[in-house]
């Protein structure tokens, strides 16, 4: 595990995504520090989910992405991905326990059965997200917040050093939100890093350390205290603050 807070966790150079002849993310270069809670924000269609999927190798990208100085292929087991809730087939016939157990699959060879250690990790992490009473429930029976917590438990089981989460708070109840944010702090204390697509701008200053602002390319990336400011927000969300630049520029003489 990399516990050096100052170390560069992710470096993108000229990194871009094109899908069906359309530029989804224009070429961007940035460095993200490790052991931080990093929010990815931007309006609908900004390319937030696309960035996470591309980083996971689920869709093609151009340019260079290095994690801890290495390409994805060399460090993939160190990264866990929590997809958007709508992207999961919740009618798949599997119970809560088995879904979390899937987090151990990357650690097992294809002929290996889960060991007692794997089962212990599953039980521990289901407990951590407060769902021990629901282990036998089919996943289709869970509430939105419980589903998100289950996916967080699956990611925790993977014992990854970097968690990429696509809107883990979308449609979750207050209890689930509190549990997930508390887990974030535990994970950071263990030296891990969280990159999380997030919509609730009001939570950014209190719950995140770093913010990546996208709008079909990079607008800004920096510590929340420096980068989460009205100028960058107006550039990121031009439809919400169309007059911002006009009203904040000094009047022409
Ligand atoms: N396979 C694809 N082919 C072409 N365009 C695509 C494809 N997948 C996504 N897009 C487009 O890419 C853009 C970015 O989508 P993405 O889901 O990354 O946005 P987002 O920032 O996560 O938005 P939201 O906040 O609504 O979830 C959208 O305009 C979307 O229509």
Written account of the structure:
The structure is a single chain. This protein has 253 residues and is α/β, with parallel strands linked by helices. The protein has a single domain, classed as P-loop containing nucleotide triphosphate hydrolases (Rossmann fold, 3-Layer(aba) Sandwich). It has 10 helices and 9 strands. Strands 5-6-7-3-8-9 form a 6-stranded mixed β-sheet, sandwiched between helices. Strands 2-1-4 form a 3-stranded antiparallel β-sheet, covered by helices on one side. Helix 4 (116-128) runs antiparallel to helix 5. It is globular, with a radius of gyration of 19 Å. Residues 1-5 and 245-253 have low confidence and may be disordered. It binds adenosine-5'-triphosphate. Adenosine-5'-triphosphate binds at residues 19-20, 22, 24, 42, 44-50.
Brief description of this entry?
The protein is an alpha/beta fold.
Strands side by side in the biggest sheet: 5-6-7-3-8-9
CA-to-CA gap between the ends?
57 Å
CATH topology: Rossmann fold
Level of helix content?
25-40%
Silhouette? globular
Average pLDDT for all residues: 87
GO molecular function, one term: ATP binding
Protein name: Peptide transporter
Family: Belongs to the ABC transporter superfamily.
Pfam families: ABC_tran
Blueprint (SSEs and pairs):
Elements (H helix, E strand, L loop, with lengths): L7 E12 L2 E12 L3 E5 L6 H8 L6 E6 L4 H4 L3 E4 L13 H6 L14 H13 L15 H14 L4 E5 L7 H16 L3 E5 L6 H4 L2 E5 L3 E6 H4 L2 H7 L7 H5 L5
Parallel strand pairs: 3-7, 3-8, 5-6, 6-7
Antiparallel strand pairs: 1-2, 1-4, 8-9
Adenosine-5'-triphosphate binds next to β2 and α1.
